Amino acid sequence: MPLGVVVKPANVNEKKAAPTVLKKIIRRRRKRRVRHVVADSQYSSQAVREEVKRLDAKPVIPYPRNQAKGKKVLRVDRKFRSHGPAKLKRLYRRRSAVERVISRLKHYFGLKHLRTRGLRNAVTHTLLCILAMLITALSSVLHGHTDLMRSPVALMKLTGKL
Asked: What distance in Å separates the CA atoms of residue 107 and residue 141, rounded to the nearest whole number?
């Protein structure tokens, strides 16, 4: 489930939005401390790594080929295979969970083709999509079908609404 969201214009690089969303997520997680921040190589910059460390977590971000040459660091090749220390490779595999959430938001909840104009409308649309995802998960738990909390179509078939 999404822990936080920041919506920026399409011409803003994701690295610039990363510190904002990291601060929002990590400061709100009081019960369970965030130990690792897993991201793809798009976020590989010294500023993002320092921000993660400043927030008392360990960055699990692969380095591109042109950075940190000669060091034992996490890297991802052209075929998306990870190389480096075993612990970092194991942690990096968890990144697929984020990709699944984004895919689900695009496929089932209407974020694939955003038809609104303006940042304010895009934020509203994005938050409504995330809210719909969370409501689907909550209703599946309340119906006693926790195995269907990630599939709105299966839940609708089960409850007879489709």
From this structure: 21
The pair phi, psi for residue 13, each rounded to 5°, is: -65, 145
Q: What is the pLDDT of residues 92-141, one digit of tens each?
A: 888 888 888 888 888 888 888 888 888 898 888 888 888 888 888 888 88
Contact by Cβ (8 Å): 129, 136: no
In degrees and rounded to multiples of 5, residue 3 shows phi and psi of -100, -25
- Cβ atoms of 76 and 82 within 8 Å: the answer is yes
Residue whose C-alpha is closest to residue 48's, from 75, 91, 19: 19
Q: What is the pTM of this model?
A: 0.71
Q: Would you list the domain boundaries of the chain?
A: 14-93, 102-159
State in Å, rounded, how far the first CA of the chain is from the last one. Answer: 24
Q: What is the pLDDT of residues 22-81, one digit of tens each?
A: 877 777 666 677 788 888 888 888 888 888 888 888 889 898 877 777 788 888 888 888
Write out the E strands in 25-160.
36-38, 58-60, 75-76, 82-83
| Residue 123 identity (one-letter amino acid) | V
Mean pLDDT of 131-152: 82
Calpha distance 136→111 (Å, rounded)? 16
